[in-house]
Structure formats: C-alpha cells, structure tokens
C-alpha cells in the first residue's frame, strides 16, 4: 500500500504502554510446511485497501472554559496549519526533469483531493524477483561469491542462542574515539569489546564494494558537493560523507545529531541513498543469481544453499518528513542508476510521481521574510502524509509498487501510522515491516514538531513475525528471519539536527544491531545565547524535581506560585510566555481562564484570524499576557512585536529558537528606553537543552549550584 490519501483522517494515538503485538500460532504452522510457493503475491496486494481512520484530534476552539483532551499530534489540523511555502531556489521536481507532468494522471494527487490510492499492478511480473534472472552482461552473476564485502559478512553471520540472549539481557560496553570531521564518537556493543576505531584517511571507491553501476555513477552524482580543487584521483566523498559512509558500510547503527538543512543536509541524504541503493542492488543480485542456479540444477535436487530472502520483500524503510524529501530521494536513486545519457533507466509512473510529490508553482504565496533554515526545511511540497513503494530490478525502477513487491519504502511517520493502524481495527497491516534490513530516519527533530508517537508506534511494529505468509517461498528464507532475529541484524541510521532525550531513547531502546552502534556526542561550547543581539538580562530560575516523572507538575506549581505573581502587576505588560509542550500550553491556558487573567493565546491550531487578533491585542497592550507555543513558531516564524517581558516556561527544543525569540524584542519601537526581562525555567533534567543555549561550561556551573543564575548579554555579546 504505497500511497495514502492526503485527506484521510488521522488515527488515534496509542499510549506508550501499548502491549506487544500478539503473534498468531497459524504462522508457526506455516513455518513447519516449508513448501515452495512461487505464485505471485499480486492477489493479496490487489485486495489491499486503505484504512481510512476516524479522526481523533479535535480542532482547538476559542470558547471559554473548553477542555483540551485531544492529542497535539501532527495530523490533518496541524498539516493544514503548516506555514505558507516559499519559492525555493532549486526543487527536486526540477531535478527530476523539465518535462511537464500534464500527461500524468494526477487526479489522485494530493492537490486534487485523493479519493482512492494508486498502486501499480501492471508491472508485477516484470519486477518479480521470483521470475527474473541475472543478466549475463551485468557481470554480477558471481555477486554471492564476494565474501569480503560488508553486505555478505553482515547477513551471513550466524548468531547463536547464547549470543541473542546476551544481547537481550546484558548492557552494552562502550568506548570513545575522536574523528577529524565527526568529532567525539561513542562506540557501543554487547557481543564484542569495543576497540578505538580510526577513520580511513583515504577512501578508494573500488575498495568500498559498491555494486555496479554505483562505482561509475557516484563520483558524477556527488560532484556538486566536492571542492572545485579536487583532482580526478581524489576520493568522490566530502570529509563528512567519507566518515559517515565508513560507518554505514560496516552495518553498524549510526546516530548523527548535527544534520543542518542549510549546510550538510543534502550531503547526508546522498550518502545514505548510496548505502541503501547499494544494499538493495546486492541483495537482489544475490536472489537473481540463485534463481539462475536453481533453474539450471537437475530436477528433484534439494539444496539449502539458496537462503537469500526475508519473510517479505521490503528491505529498506526510509522515514522522511515531507513529500519534497521523497522526491529528492527518488531523484538521487535515478541518477545513481543511470550510467550515462545513452543508458537511461526505465522508471514506471515517473510523471505521476512528479505530479503528486512535486510542488505547484501556482500555490506558492508571495515571498515572505523568513529565516534561511525555515526556507530550507519547508522547501517544495511539505505535505506530511504519504508513503510509496519502490522496486528496483537491474535497469528498471518501479514507483508506486505494492508494498509486498517493493524493495524500498519511503514514507512519513503519519503515512506509516495510518497503514499500521491500531489494535482492534479491521484494516491494518504491518507484515511488510517484518524483514526490514536498513531503517533510515532522517530529520528526526522535525517529528518532534509533528507527532513523536507515530515514530514510537512504528518502532513497536518493525521486525515482528508476519501474521500471514504472503506467498513466501520458505526454502529461500534466511534462518535469521525464521528464528525471528531480524531486529538483531537491522541497521538503523538516525539523523537529527539536535540531541533530544526522546530521540536518544529510540536509538538506545529500539536498536539491537549485533554489529554495534556509533553515536556522535559533541558538546556545544558557546550556545545560542551568544546569538542574542539585544541588551537583555537573562534570569535562569532552577526548579527542583524529585524525579523526571514529576517535572511537569513541579514546573507548573513553580510557575504559578513563584514566577507568575511577579508578573501580575499591570506594570509588567507585554509578557510573552513561550511554551514548548502543547499539553503545558492547554494547562496554562485553562488556569489563566480560571483566574480571569488578561491574556490571549496562539498555538499551532489557531486560525489565521485568531492569530491576527491575538497579535493585535498584544501589540496595543489590550492583553497583558500572550501564551505562545513552540510548534506555532516552528511552522510560522511570525514576529511578535512589543515584547517587553519574556518567560521561557521550558527551554526550547531548537537552541536557535532561544535567540530568535529574544531578538524579537528589537522590533519594539521604544526599545532604547524599555526595561526588558527574560526569565527561563529549568531543572537538572534539562542538561542537554541548557548546554545548547548557554554552553557546556556554564551548564556545569548552573547544575552544580542550586541558586538562580543571572546573565547579561549585550548587543555585541
């Protein structure tokens, strides 16, 4: 089910205490048969239909005393409030080619009101792994003999029961190392003692075991990121790509929390696309080569040497936040598969894909002044509800392939959430996630602004035993899959713009790779407070919480009892309260209403008219307080004028939001004569966020001392 209707309602969110999915005993009976099932799976795929789920999130209302009990997730309401797009300098749609998409059937496109999901069933036999054979001219018939390549070494390792038990029960051992470009790395593993590992100074493409034609196409595709001073003999990698790919190619898990949409985002995307495509081509070449051997062997011959598949075909799952990201990924895949202009690959449904994943120039609003990072993140088509299957077979690519006929699935968290469904729903499916070998989660920080529950929901349903056989030939299935050990072989690549406890938790609690993990752990030296350009006293007020579970309640009581009374006086007008969590925002809003305080509020669900009204009231001083959510700032970046007093109810998720909000004060007309204040609430559990704002040295001092900290930042820092 590769593509979900945009207008479908978002599903209800399961709690974090969701129980594990119970496996059906019928499946174990199927394992006992081990009968060859060469029939096509198209019958099951054609029977698939979308699970249009009832919406659970209610739109926010402005009625007095209303109680907010819904999730603040990134479903349709949030998507409709995504900021107006701005004109990008170069979009993936342009990179895919300039031919018009008028000939494409875009009636099901997101901008035309999707009624029914499109799935390509016409090319089923052409892209079937079971019925195709390796082309002799490709020179890859002996792909399975290359025992030195990392792909073979990783998938061919046979774990023992005691090793699996060890990974399930014992903690990981770790070691530290510093690399020239990535910086401080933490290597961790359970099965083997971690030894310091140095980066390769020189990388020869021929020694990377890239599958044809990637050895030829990669230098050309990656050329825009290389220095103009590079010689033809120099490695076709940037320093960052070289070190990242060095780790990826060992099939270790990787967490890189320094992705930047402005600087290195595209470099990273190209690197993980190369790794994913290399993995798929090698895996498919092994299957096609074994098909040829089975065809040529004598009738009645039984061999156990051709176990080369998982329980389902999808091997790579790529999670990205917007359609524009999927458009770029497919463009990179096509570029990597085309050796030259004369040898173009056949891409099925390309025009349709451009029509549904590209951006419509007519829908772009007039240019608005927004920060550069905003323009980079929200370039192109920013719809966040999609999924698409991609099948690759030698010299052809099939877009919109049914999931059970796909090699790669590209999706957003919301797109995955609506197909996985919730317990008790009739139409739900997650069997296609059973044999995922590489999971790539890019721009993980954006999902914190959408709905992190969707990511957790996905992680709970990946690499589980399928509930149905889906036409699999059990004689070709690897033993690691039959033993339900897929999660111990899955490589997870996690890229984010920041360190966050929720992202760290996914990497530490949901990744079980036997090969180990590598995490980049650099500490910020200065912090974003150095980017504040207005003269402003910063008061950091520490609250004491007994444990992390009671921080939310402790912060609320601290704010209500100790902070808010200082601002109730009418003299303390124009006070903006910045609230990162929507739940905290609702709690504060209800308290302000109960206390009949003179306030207005803006959140990510507020309509344009309500936003304009709130900003006008605040500007004229008719409302003393303005409750302001972080996700509204993330999606809109609108300047609020006449701020005189600023309260950070909690440290912002993005460090640069701290300086952005503080710098809004310079828009005040009487700025030279104003007495401004900035108050920040923090606890010892906010160490990462605090370090990103004030720097690591100040953070250490502030956490050791239990006193409030006063900092004064001048305009020239």
Outline the fold blueprint.
Blueprint: H1 25-33, H2 42-46, H3 76-80, H4 92-95, H5 150-156, H6 161-169, E1 173-179, E2 183-189, H7 214-221, H8 239-248, E3 253-256, H9 265-296, E4 316-319, H10 323-337, E5 346-348, H11 350-357, H12 372-377, E6 387-393, E7 396-399, E8 408-411, H13 413-420, E9 438-441, H14 444-449, H15 452-461, H16 479-482, H17 486-489, E10 491-495, H18 501-509, E11 517-520, E12 536-542, H19 551-563, E13 575-579, H20 582-594, E14 599-602, H21 608-620, E15 625-629, H22 630-636, E16 645-648, H23 655-663, E17 677-682, H24 687-694, H25 696-704, E18 709-713
Parallel strand pairs: 3-10, 3-11, 4-8, 4-9, 5-7, 9-10, 12-17, 13-15, 13-16, 14-15, 16-17
Antiparallel strand pairs: 1-2, 2-11, 6-7, 6-8, 12-18
Q: Biggest sheet, strands in spatial order? A: 1-2-11-3-10-9-4-8-6-7-5
Could you report the average pLDDT, rounded to the nearest whole number?
81
What's the main sheet like?
11 strands, mixed
Distance between the termini: 54 Å
Task: Describe the protein's architecture and organization.
It is found in: Nucleus, Nucleolus. Residues 142-158, 293-308 have a biased composition (Basic and acidic residues). Residues 528-712 form the UTP25 C-terminal domain. Residues 1-112, 133-158, 289-308 are annotated as: Disordered. The chain is an alpha/beta fold and 717 residues long. Among the domains are: 171-195 and 208-227 and 235-295 and 307-362 and 386-421 and 428-520, P-loop containing nucleotide triphosphate hydrolases (Rossmann fold, 3-Layer(aba) Sandwich); 528-714, Rossmann fold. The protein is 32% helix and 12% strand. The chain contains 25 helices and 18 strands. The chain has an 11-stranded mixed β-sheet with strand order 1-2-11-3-10-9-4-8-6-7-5. A 7-stranded mixed β-sheet has the order 14-15-13-16-17-12-18, sandwiched between helices. Strand 1 (173-179) and strand 2 (183-189) form a beta hairpin. Helix 7 (214-221) packs across helix 10 and helix 13 (413-420) crosses helix 15. Mean pLDDT is 81; it is low at 1-89, 98-115 and 141-146.
